[in-house]
Structures are given as C-alpha cells and as structure tokens.
Amino acid sequence: MFTRLIKLLPAITLICCAHPASAQRGNSLKTDLQLLKTKLETIHPALYEYTPKVRMEQLFDSCYQQLNDDTDDRQFYGIVKALLSAVKDGHLSSGASPRFSQFIHTENSYLPLITYFKGDSIFVVNSIDNKIPAGSRLISINSHPADAMRQKMSDYLTADGYSTSKKALVLNQIFYFYYYLSYGYSAGFTVEYISPSGDHSTVSL
Fold first, then answer.
1. How many H helices and E strands in the chain?
2. How many C-beta neighbours within 10 Å does residue 154 have?
3. Contacts of 116 (CB under 8 A, 6+ apart)
4. Burial of 123 (0-12, 13-18, 19+ CB in 10 A)
5. Among 34, 85, 174, 185, which lies 20 to 30 A Cα-Cα from 149?
6. Secondary structure (3-state) at 126
7. Directed axis angle between helix 73-87 and helix 165-183, to 10°?
8. CA 189, 196, 111 angle in degrees (round to 5)?
9. C-alpha to C-alpha distance for 49 and 43, rounded to whole angstroms
10. What pTM was computed for the model?
C-alpha cells in the first residue's frame, strides 16, 4: 500500500504494494505492517525518543488487529501514516501505491473547501461557488466537530517532537485530502459554520 519512507528508510521502498481484494489480503497487509515495524526497529536511530517502546508496541498491535480482508487502500494508508506520526520524526513520510495514487488524483471526489488552521480553529478561505463567506469558522462537516477533525487529521501527519507548525502547514494546503483519509468517501457535505459577522449557518456542498 504505502510505497516509500522518504530519506530515513529508503530500504523499505515498495514493501506495501496495493494488494487486490482477496481472501489473502488481510494476511498480506499484516506482513507489510510487520515489515514496516522491523525496518523501523532496525534502521531508525531514535525510534523511542518521544513515544516509549511499550506504547509503540501497543499501537502496532492495535493496528495489526484492525487488518482483515476487507481493509481497503485508504484505511491501510491511514494506519501506516498514523504509526509513522506516533514516532514524532518529521523526516518520516509515506507515499501511496501507484494504484491508490491514481485513484487519489483522478477518480476520487473531495470536499470543495480551502481552509486555514489558526490555533484550535479552522477557517474557510474559499468554497465552491463561494457558498461560505471567506473567514468563516468551521463548526462541523457532516456532523464531525471541527476539534475532532483537527485532531484526527493531525494524527496522520509527521513532525519533529510535539511541533504543530508543519502539520498546520500541510493541512492548510490539502485539508480536503486528509478529510477523505479520515472519514472516507462522501457523496455530499453538510457544513456548519459561523460567518465573520457572527451568523450561525449550515450549507450543503
């Protein structure tokens, strides 16, 4: 599924190819995850600097138990990104498999919003047909509260230690993708927001 770990772990390139749905898919994904764990333990010079070994073991075990024949590319990619984020090393990164990458860039439909993260809030920069006034503060999308979205998306992103600036920068650029990674495909979006003038409104995108 994921195809590379940039800079630090070049040896792991292509270990997680996109496995077609089959009765063996779950086992194949578990093998990929175990290989990721082995490579991190072998190559990373400070794997447990921020997250203790016991906690990392718990995270890997939990993710391992989630994998089955029905685990799709989005779910597995999210699992890999969450595990790398837990290491708290900004040099770690993962890329999607060719099949999933093609889907991401040419076939999937995304939330039509451009956003800006400031502090604990998410603001709208632009929306399709300007349905939401620029500068509005997001309250929720499809009943997902803004605070929960921010935390869930941040958990997929790597950064050095407890820094949040890099994560905010990435989310400012591709919020729509991390919304999809967090919550999956949606045919439509119900957005609740507070406008710059203080009006509390809901709109369908």
1. 6, 8
2. 17
3. 122, 123, 124, 125, 172
4. buried
5. 34
6. strand
7. 150
8. 20
9. 14
10. 0.85
C-alpha count within 13 angstroms, C-beta hemisphere, residue 10? 1
pLDDT in tens, the chain (205 residues): 433 444 444 433 333 445 555 558 888 899 999 999 998 999 899 999 999 999 999 999 999 999 999 999 899 999 999 999 999 999 888 888 788 888 877 766 788 999 999 888 999 999 988 899 999 999 999 999 999 999 999 999 999 999 999 999 999 999 999 999 999 988 889 999 999 999 999 999 9
Q: What are phi and psi of 135, to 5 degrees?
A: 95, -5
Token digits of residue 5: 């770990």
Q: Which residues pair with 202 in a beta bridge?
A: 192
φ, ψ of residue 127 in degrees (nearest 5): -145, 160
Write down the pLDDT at residue 14.
35
Q: Would strands 121-127 and 200-204 be described as parallel, antiparallel, or unpaired? A: unpaired
Residues 70, 59: Cα–Cα separation, whole Å: 20
The strand pairing partners of 2, in sequence order, are 96
Taking alpha carbons only, the member of 70, 80, 59 closest to residue 17 is 80
